[in-house]
Each structure stands twice: as structure tokens, then as C-alpha cells.
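Entry:
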Amino acid sequence: MKAARILWIIASFYLFIVGFVYIVILGDAPENYPERYEFIRANWNIYELQWKGEFMIAIFLAIASLIFANSLGRWEFYFIAVGQFLIAVGFPPSLSLGELDVISHYEQIGKAGHLYVNFGFFISLSGFTLLHWHNDV
């Protein structure tokens, strides 16, 4: 249980830092998609670190949620864990667009990875909603 708390705290702290970095980076990004995509490719080193941080956050939250679910007997944490696991699995394909040239095959893999990550966010958000809905605090 102590390990789950530590992982949850670390993930929450990293989420705050990654979100702040993302806001700062996108402050200079162009508005329309083609120029924004080129901006991301030109600054790929920063985005790659940011997305690797998000991957680590998803893994930490998935592990902590599984520990909380088993220790506390709260089934809502299983939704959070599954959602975070889907996010973690979806990140590598969505990152495949990094240093590669724009080829339709890799572009499709990246789009599928983004959909997978979005589905994971939806499942995880459902778990958080259920957890807070059924909480007596």
C-alpha cells in the first residue's frame, strides 16, 4: 500500500510538470495543423521527452491503481488501471511518427495509437468518475 501511495504521488507530481512543459511548448506552436505538425517534428527532442514522461506516468498510475484495488477492495480502481494500461500501450505506436518520414503506413499507425490513447483516457476517466461518485468523503 505504501508503494502505491508513493507511485501515485510521483505520477501526480510528474503529471503537473509534464502538463506545464506542454503548455509552455505549445505556446509557440502555429495554429493550423500542417505547420503545427512541422513544429512538433522540428522540436521532437522536447516532445519525445514529454511523451516518455506521460508513458511513465501511465505505468505508475496503472500499478498504483492495481495495488489500491487489491488492498482497498474498490473495483473502481480497476477501471483506472485498465485505462492507464491502455494509455501506456497506445503511446509507443502514437510516438512512431517521431524521426520517421511521413509515410502513410506510419501515419496510420500513429493515428491508431492516438485513438487507443484516447480510449484509455476515457476508460480511466470513467474509473475516476465512478470512484468519486461512490466515495463517502
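The CA atoms of residues 76 and 131 lie 5 Å apart.
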